[in-house]
Specification:
Layout: H1 2-11, H2 15-22, H3 26-34, H4 50-60, H5 64-67, H6 71-81, H7 88-97, E1 125-135, E2 138-147, E3 153-159, H8 164-177, E4 184-187, H9 196-204, E5 208-211, H10 221-238, H11 243-259, H12 271-293
Parallel strand pairs: 1-4, 4-5
Antiparallel strand pairs: 1-2, 2-3
Length: about 325
């Protein structure tokens, strides 16, 4: 409109002539005159504020009981306690967005790339799995138990079957080798590991049963990594043709793995040394605590003596 007015001033022409020159109709000019200036956007009173979202997240993570609570019950609990005043559907969307719905719902990104709680000492976590070994068309089954802290291979056996009884006997023999250990046994959901008898063996020996998420081998990644190593560095290069030769190949690899091989995941250290240093540190810490709490000063145990809670002995090859 300002341009049209300037042209009318300069030329003295009629408005209709100028608008025809510009190709603008009179109705368009009328619409421009009636147009209202833009107004600021009003705040939507039903929009969830960022502060409310953060309060829901913090409250959800405040305790294990609240973490496992259903979203409906959680909604009304937050209303009663004055945490956040939201609808059930709004709370559901927030929890779903941040993967906090809980065990009752399928959260696609809920599984971690590895077991979330790291082991703190030797015999804290044990990882077990079964690997297929084929020699001359005959199938064998390598079952093993791996210490999660030191990566030390505690025990292994090359079985001719993978029945639940064979795995249970293997587990019992491993526990008998380390009677002072009370580990968390991490395993997949194979039929051998979810049987009632297997769980009874763990319970009777003060071990904690920790099954991994289904179809997610990364949770038991230490065991999966060991299977990949023994296949690529021992079984495939040597290609054993019968059972006895396969046992010798595995024995040689296990000795190299435990006593000589450097592990990147453990800062390029050797599993047997990791286990020894951890056992010594546990013994020293236990002795220092006893010195500070006892009324009289007891004798200091030798650092190389077997610790009370983390006894560690090297596994012997299978017979």
């Amino acid at each position: 409109m300002a341009a049209i007015n300037r042209v009318i001033e300069w030329t003295g022409w009629k408005r209709t002539e100028v608008m025809t020159l510009f190709g603008i109709s009179s109705s368009q000019v009328s619409r421009w005159r009636k147009a209202k200036p833009a107004r600021p956007f009003l705040i939507n009173p039903f929009r969830i504020l960022d502060e409310e979202v953060q309060r829901v997240i913090d409250y959800r993570r405040s305790s294990e009981e609240i973490r496992n609570m259903g979203y409906r019950k959680l909604t009304w609990k937050m209303i009663d306690e004055g945490v956040a005043f939201l609808t059930e559907s709004s709370v559901y969307r927030i929890l779903s967005m941040f993967k906090l719905l809980g065990k009752a719902f399928k959260e696609n990104d809920g599984a971690k790339k590895e077991y979330e709680n790291k082991p703190q000492y030797v015999h804290h976590h044990w990882h077990t799995d079964i690997a297929y070994v084929t020699m001359s068309g005959v199938h064998y089954y390598l079952v093993f138990m791996l210490d999660g802290f030191s990566r030390y291979l505690l025990h292994w056996e090359l079985l001719t079957d993978m029945t639940g009884l064979s795995v249970e006997l293997f587990t019992q023999r491993t526990i008998d080798k380390y009677p002072e250990a009370s580990p968390m046994v991490i395993h997949d959901n194979g039929s051998q590991f979810i049987s009632h008898d297997f769980k009874c063996i763990l319970s009777e020996n003060n071990c904690i049963d920790v099954p991994t998420r289904r179809k997610h081998p990364e949770t038991n990644g230490k065991a999966e990594r060991f299977v990949g190593l023994i296949r690529t560095e021992a079984l495939r290069p040597n290609s054993p043709s019968y059972y006895g030769e396969g046992v010798k190949v595995i024995e040689k690899f296990v000795d190299e793995y435990n006593n000589n091989r450097y592990h990147v995941s453990r800062a390029l250290s050797i599993p047997s040394l990791n286990a020894l240093f951890s056992a010594i540190a546990t013994t020293v810490n236990t002795s220092l605590r006893a010195l500070t709490t006892a009324s009289s000063v007891p004798s200091m145990p030798s650092p190389l003596s077997t610790p009370t809670s983390t006894a560690f002995t090297a596994p012997s090859p299978i017979e």
